[in-house]
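Workshop exercise sheet. Pairs work together: one partner reads the sequence aloud, the other fills in the structure field after running the prediction. Swap roles for the next sheet.
Pair: D.N. / O.F.
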Amino acid sequence: MTTILVNRDDFQMHAESGTARLAMLCEAASDHLLLEAVRDGSEAAFAELVSRYRNQLTNYLYRLLGDYEIAVDLSQESFIRVYRARDRYQASHAFSTYLYRIATNLAISEMRRRKRRRLVSLSTFFSSGTNSSETSTAFDVPDARPLPDANLIARERQSAVQAAINTLPDKYRVPLVLRDIEGRTYEDIATLLDMNVGTIKSRISRARNFLREKLEGYL
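Structure field:
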């Protein structure tokens, strides 16, 4: 594969040239250089950043929240915030860390909104005297139907894992997903969440223990 050397002036020189040439320049540019081009008004540079990170960011948010539509919405909102704050971006950390920090904060806010809604719902539930068997679905006992095939078992196991992750408090859920699903280093997670590495390791360890207890029947 031929290496293409790209500098900031290339975006200015070729901004009015063919889209194919500009797309090639964007693909070869670093994230930091693309942000500089975005500051200068390059829509192609911003489109390239979105293309690079949209899918993985959406998957990360889905793992945190368990709701694909909300994950898509928050992924889009993350990029909107990057664009709006483009003049304030500092290249002291990787762009992906900056982007994931924005997305993580949005996800934590969403988790806390859900928690408040659940508290209101539970308050209404107990005050109304509703029969718990009519509203509780998270801990239903499995029925006695014939055993499903291997693919269905795998899907059910995956669903059970996601459901268990969703029950974790956000302070455990976020570092666990970043480490065990996203594959990020402890150091990167510590930077992203603005914590020390020891705290990150401790929270991930506790999260794993919680999951083992919840998934004892599946693992």
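Discussion prompt: The longest helix spans residues 95-128. What would you look at next?
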